[in-house]
């Protein structure tokens, strides 16, 4: 595999991770995930509908865990204890699967991460053997703290969850990328393909998104666009872009042999 | 159970409860009074009066 994404010692060909929420039905979820090429998919843990389970379609039938790597999340948790409890249930549910996405939210308006609670939950989860990919602020110091605790990837937001506002602070993302040796994935805020490409061009190791695909008019087509954008952005990063040269244009065509006179 | 009261005629093992709820064999996890009951213990864990159960599954999410 050329240039794989490595998380907790496992290699993945795709650097795009996708959520499975907000789709019309499981058929659309499956079609979009397949078009995205994603190998890691996030899922939420929720109470079952007691008494309404008969022949109810399940996400696990649409996306068999044998084919996709599940990344159970703690969406909706506002403190460390709830997040830890949710992921213990996820591990039991998924037969010991220990790769998880920790997110501890600060408030329902912004869904901004609550970092003190996030750090506390990360510490407990790492001690219990979980491999923790962690949604966090784009603060390089907090990202380093998460690395020191033993998380396997840090996932700063680029803008608010579900906002589609794109990469609002590329400088901070670059600081996190520079300061942290772990994989850095942008989680949250991507709205369209160029946002994903910009994240990758900055040197992010991957991008995690849900709403940008699910809320597009044509989710499957947007999933394809995101796959290409993540690949293009990664290749541009590896290729090393030309320097920006303000006020110093250099022509791409020969300057000799022109029939027109030289500019004054 | 999942925040609602349920009444049963006699004490039940978790495995029997799940079968009554048509959840046998489904990918779910069970928590009893805040502690996870591993699948291996479903057959010999009796639920008692006043127990609080959570039964969860994986659903679409971001």
Please write out the topology.
The complex is a heterodimer of chains A (264) and B (62).
Chain A: E1 5-7, E2 10-12, E3 16-19, H1 26-36, E4 40-47, H2 59-62, E5 69-72, H3 80-93, E6 99-102, H4 115-127, E7 131-136, H5 140-149, E8 153-156, H6 170-179, E9 185-187, H7 193-201, E10 206-209, H8 211-214, H9 219-239
Helix pairs in contact in A: 1-9, 3-4, 4-5, 5-6, 7-9
Chain B: E1 12-13, H1 14-20, E2 29-32, E3 35-37, E4 46-47, E5 53-60
Antiparallel strand pairs in B: 1-4, 2-3, 2-5
Detailed description of the structure:
- The complex is a heterodimer of chains A (264) and B (62).
- With 264 residues, chain A is of the alpha/beta class.
- Helix content of chain A is 36%, strand content 16%.
- Chain A is built from nine helices and ten strands.
- A five-stranded parallel beta sheet of chain A has the order 5-4-3-10-9. A three-stranded parallel beta sheet of chain A has the order 6-7-8. Chain A has a two-stranded antiparallel sheet with strand order 1-2.
- In chain A, helix 2 links the parallel strand 4 and strand 5.
- In chain A, helix 3 runs parallel beside helix 4, helix 5 packs parallel to helix 6 and helix 7 packs parallel to helix 9.
- Chain A is globular, with a radius of gyration of 21 Å.
- The model of chain A has no long low-confidence stretch (mean pLDDT 95).
- By secondary structure, chain B is mainly beta.
- In chain B, 11% of the residues lie in helices and 31% in strands.
- Chain B contains one helix and five strands; from the N terminus they run E-H-E-E-E-E.
- In chain B, the strands form two sheets. Chain B has a three-stranded antiparallel beta sheet, with no helix packed on it. In chain B, strands 1-4 form a two-stranded antiparallel sheet.
- In chain B, strand 2 and strand 3 form a beta hairpin.
- Chain B is globular, with a radius of gyration of 12 Å.
- The interface between A and B is medium-sized, with 37 and 27 residues.
- Strand 4 of chain A pairs antiparallel with strand 5 of chain B, so a sheet runs across the interface.
């Amino acid at each position: 595999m050329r240039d794989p994404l490595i998380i907790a010692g496992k290699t993945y060909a795709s650097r795009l991770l996708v959520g499975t929420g907000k789709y019309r039905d499981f058929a659309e979820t499956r079609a979009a995930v397949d078009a995205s090429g994603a190998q890691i998919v996030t899922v939420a843990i929720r109470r079952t509908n007691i008494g309404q389970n008969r022949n109810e379609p399940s996400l696990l039938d649409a996306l068999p865990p044998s084919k996709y790597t599940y990344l159970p999340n703690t969406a909706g948790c506002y403190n460390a204890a709830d997040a830890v409890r949710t992921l213990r249930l996820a591990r039991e549910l998924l037969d010991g699967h220990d790769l998880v996405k920790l997110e501890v939210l600060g408030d329902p308006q912004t869904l901004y991460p609550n970092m003190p609670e996030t750090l506390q939950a990360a510490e407990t989860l790492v001690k219990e053997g979980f491999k923790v990919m962690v949604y966090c602020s784009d603060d390089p110091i907090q990202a380093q703290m998460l690395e020191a605790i033993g998380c396997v990837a840090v996932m700063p937001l680029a803008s608010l969850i579900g906002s589609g506002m794109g990469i609002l602070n590329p400088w901070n993302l670059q600081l996190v990328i520079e300061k942290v040796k772990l994989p850095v994935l942008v989680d949250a805020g991507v709205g369209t393909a160029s946002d994903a490409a910009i994240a990758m061009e900055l040197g992010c190791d991957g991008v995690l998104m849900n709403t940008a695909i699910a809320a597009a008019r044509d989710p499957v087509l947007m999933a394809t666009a995101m796959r290409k954008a993540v690949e293009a952005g990664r290749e541009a990063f590896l290729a090393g872009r030309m320097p920006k040269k303000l006020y110093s244009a250099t022509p791409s065509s020969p300057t000799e042999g022109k029939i027109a006179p030289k500019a004054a | 159970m999942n925040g609602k009261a349920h009444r049963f005629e006699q004490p039940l093992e978790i495995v029997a409860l799940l079968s009554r709820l048509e959840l046998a064999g489904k990918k779910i996890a069970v928590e009893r009074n805040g502690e996870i009951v591993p699948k291996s213990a479903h057959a010999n864990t009796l639920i008692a009066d006043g127990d609080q159960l959570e039964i969860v599954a994986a659903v679409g999410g971001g």
